[in-house]
TrEMBL record:
Record-annotated Transcription elongation factor GreA/GreB N-terminal domain positions: 6-76
The keyword Transcription regulation is assigned to this record: yes
Name of protein: Transcription elongation factor GreB
GO biological process, one term: regulation of DNA-templated transcription elongation
Signal peptide coordinates: none
PANTHER family (alphabetical): TRANSCRIPTION ELONGATION FACTOR GREA, TRANSCRIPTION ELONGATION FACTOR GREB
A GO term, aspect molecular function: RNA polymerase binding
């Protein structure tokens, strides 16, 4: 089974790295300190600080493992280096119009950076998959939960 690369922008990778560093360098040492202090207070079975601290430490360790795997699997792609800016590829900001002439602008980002409310859609999303390789004027059909829609590519831009 082949898996698609986990594409990510340089800014997205920096955000993952910052979150990892925050958890490892600030939050985890603080929790370790609380757990050590609570453990020294005696009976651990009814010690809320100790129990909560241990639980929080497991959550942080799990998040560190997930972030580490994401960073290891990430393929950083700088959209500014895209050689063919006339077609939709990773990092493109695309204005599309549906059958009712409703315009929508989306930026195709890594799946870890996606935020549909902010107009950033993941590389693996149905709309992004349909738009890949398209040029201005192309019509693309997308199967969405609400049914099939057709979009026309109005404009394609890349960061400078």
């Amino acid at each position: 089974m082949t898996t698609q690369p986990n594409y990510i922008t340089p800014a997205g990778f920096a955000a993952l790295r910052a979150e990892y560093d925050q958890l490892l360098g600030v939050e985890r040492p603080r929790i370790v300190e609380v757990v050590s202090w609570a453990a020294g207070n005696g009976d651990r079975s009814e010690n809320g600080d100790y129990l909560y601290g241990r639980k929080r430490m497991r959550e942080i360790d799990g998040q560190l493992r997930r972030l580490s795997k994401k960073m290891k699997d990430a393929k950083v792609v700088d959209p500014r280096q895209q050689p063919d800016k006339s077609r939709v590829y990773f990092g493109a900001t695309v204005t599309i119009a549906d059958e009712d002439d409703n315009h929508r602008t989306v930026t195709i980002m890594g799946n870890d950076e996606a935020d549909a409310g902010a107009g950033r859609i993941g590389w693996g999303s149905p709309i992004a998959r349909a738009l890949r390789g398209s040029a201005v004027g192309d019509l693309r059909r997308v199967m969405l939960p609400a049914g099939e829609k057709e979009y026309e590519v109005i404009e394609i831009t890349y960061p400078e």
